User: Which sequence fits this backbone?
């Protein structure tokens, strides 16, 4: 922060105090309009607060309130998950970031992945020193969102079951198929009936193939395992899927799951 509290005008101080008391750490231009007589004056006020270091611009018309604890050097930490979901009208934390959120992987992704059913450009953006990637999906595949709260504000994150399905759909956005294997081995709470419902709704042969192969290969425990795997097999599409999309263009084919095992050193069961 570049200036002391005394540099604030009375209306600026009222606005910042009001936003802070309402836990409006992230706010939109429209939220500030009632505090000034016109849109023009509001815009000028936002520019003044930006120059003084009391707010940061996240995107056009979207701002972050700099907390008092930032001090004179302007250093503080805020929740990147909260920021990420505010950058799109409809978005949820997903893929590798969601795997880490649910403690299904020990690897910390360097990118914050946000799933959205809206096309956002640019899809890759660096904000406050962090990289955000916005992944657009079809509206009928945007579901399984669970609300979470951080610092008085809510954000969405794909639940455990949807996170696994998204991961099997896009291993490239989750570190690799190895990260998904680790997630399956480490997850302690999983609703298998919900997972079945999500699989049916997501309707992807490649997801059935990757998930079915991994569950069987890793000897993952689940209720009614034989019956469930047989049901998954009945959903397989024609053709051979890659276990690791974008990986080696070679490898043996697992005919049971119609998948090419194109990564080396898979290891033994429960040692992927």
Assistant:
């Amino acid at each position: 922060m570049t200036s002391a509290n005394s540099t604030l005008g009375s209306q600026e101080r009222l606005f910042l105090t009001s936003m802070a008391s309402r836990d409006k750490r992230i706010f939109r231009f429209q939220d500030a309009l009632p505090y000034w007589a016109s849109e023009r004056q509001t815009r000028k006020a936002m520019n003044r607060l930006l120059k003084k270091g009391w707010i940061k611009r996240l995107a056009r018309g979207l701002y972050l309130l700099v907390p008092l604890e930032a001090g004179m050097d302007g250093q503080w930490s805020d929740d990147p998950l909260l920021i990420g979901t505010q950058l799109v009208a409809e978005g949820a934390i997903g893929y590798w970031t969601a795997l880490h959120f649910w403690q299904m992987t020990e690897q910390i992704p360097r990118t914050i992945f946000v799933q959205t059913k809206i096309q956002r450009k640019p899809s890759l953006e660096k904000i406050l020193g962090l990289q955000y990637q916005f992944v657009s999906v079809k509206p009928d595949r945007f579901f399984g969102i669970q609300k979470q709260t951080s610092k008085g504000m809510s954000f969405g994150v794909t639940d455990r079951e949807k996170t696994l399905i998204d991961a099997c759909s896009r291993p490239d956005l989750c570190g690799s198929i190895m990260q998904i294997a680790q997630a399956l081995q480490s997850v302690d709470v999983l609703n298998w009936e919900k997972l079945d419902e999500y699989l049916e709704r997501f309707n992807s042969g490649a997801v059935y193939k990757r998930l079915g192969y991994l569950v069987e290969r890793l000897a993952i425990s689940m209720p009614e395992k034989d019956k469930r795997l047989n049901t998954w097999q009945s959903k397989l599409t024609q053709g051979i899927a890659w276990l690791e999309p974008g990986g080696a263009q070679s490898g043996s084919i697992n005919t049971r799951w119609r998948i090419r095992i194109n990564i080396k050193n898979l290891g033994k069961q429960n040692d992927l």
